[in-house]
Amino acid sequence: MRQVIAIDGPSGAGKTTIAKLIAKELGFSYLDTGALYRAVAIELRNRRIGPEDDEDKILDALDHTTVTFDNGSVLLNGRDVSGEIRSTEIDYYSSVFSAKKIVRDFLLDVQRNAALNNDLVVEGRDTATVIFPEAQKKIFMDASVEERAKRRYLQFRSNGLHISMDEARKSIIDRDKRDASRDISPLKMASDAFSIDSSSLSVEQVMDKILDFIRTGH
C-alpha cells in the first residue's frame, strides 16, 4: 500500500471539496468512496431492486456489476455515471444500500486496490476505521447540522435539482441517523484521527489546518 490520507465525516462536512484540493496540492490520486456506493445504488435501482429484497437477489446483481473511480469520474459497467449519482433519490438509496454487508464487501477491494499503485487521498464514512485503518494520516471533518444542510441545499441547486432548506436539513438529519446507527461500519471517528469542525471556517482555513497536520503531525 502506498501513502494514504483518509478523510471521514458526515454528509455535508466538506470532505469532497477538501479531499480534491489536498490531493491536488500533494500530487496524490483522489478517491470518493461515496460515489462508488451511489453507482451501486443506481445499478440496483435500474434492476428494480430495493433495500427490502433478499441478499441473494442483490448478490446476483453485484456479480454482474463493475464499479470504478477513474480520474474523478465514476464508471458503472464502463459507463460514466458521474452526473446521475447526484440526485436526491440516489442519495437516499446509496445510504440505505451501504448499510448492507454484501454491498460493503463488494466495494472493499475496489477501494483498497486504489492505493496499490498510487498515493491516495480518500474520503468517505469509514475510510480511516475500516478501509484503510493503517492510513498514514487520518482526518475527521464535521460541521453543524445547519451549515451542512445549507451546503447540501446549495449543492443540489447548483446541479439543477430543486430542494427546500427544510428538505435539505431533514435529509442531513436522516442520513446522520442511518450512518451512525447501522450495524456494519457505522460512522465514527478513528481514535488517532485529527478532528476539525469546518462550520465557521473558510475552505482555505480548513486546507491550512489539515495540511499543517499532514506535514507536522499536529
Can you put this structure into words, describing what you see?
- The chain is globular, with a radius of gyration of 17 Å.
- The two termini are 23 Å apart.
- The strands form two sheets. The chain has a five-stranded parallel beta sheet with strand order 2-6-1-7-8. Strands 3-4-5 form a three-stranded antiparallel beta sheet, with helices on one face.
- Helices cover 49% and strands 16% of the residues.
- It is of the alpha/beta class and 218 residues long.
- It has nine helices and eight strands.
- Helix 1 crosses helix 9, helix 2 crosses helix 4 and helix 2 crosses helix 5.
- The chain has a single domain, classed as 3-Layer(aba) Sandwich (Rossmann fold).
Topology:
Layout: E1 4-8, H1 15-26, E2 29-32, H2 33-46, H3 55-62, E3 67-70, E4 73-76, E5 79-80, H4 88-97, H5 101-113, E6 120-124, H6 127-131, E7 137-142, H7 145-158, H8 165-181, E8 194-197, H9 203-216
Parallel strand pairs: 1-6, 1-7, 2-6, 7-8
Antiparallel strand pairs: 3-4, 4-5
Helix pairs in contact: 1-9, 2-4, 2-5, 7-8
How would you concisely characterize the structure shown here?
Helix content is 49%, strand content 16%. It has 218 residues and is α/β, with parallel strands linked by helices.
Can you tell me the CATH topology?
Answer: Rossmann fold
Spans of at least 5 consecutive residues whose pLDDT stays below 50 are: none
Overall shape: it is globular
- The CATH superfamily appears as P-loop containing nucleotide triphosphate hydrolases
* Average pLDDT level: 91
Q: Main sheet, how many strands, which sense, barrel?
A: 5 strands, parallel
| Helix-residue proportion | 40-55%
The spatial strand order of the largest sheet comes to 2-6-1-7-8
The helix tally amounts to: 9
State the end-to-end distance: 23 Å
Strand content: 15-25%
CATH class category name: Alpha Beta
- Which class best fits the helix and strand makeup? alpha/beta
**Number of E strands:** 8
Radius of gyration: 17 Å
CATH architecture field: 3-Layer(aba) Sandwich
* Secondary-structure element series: EHEHHEEEHHEHEHHEH
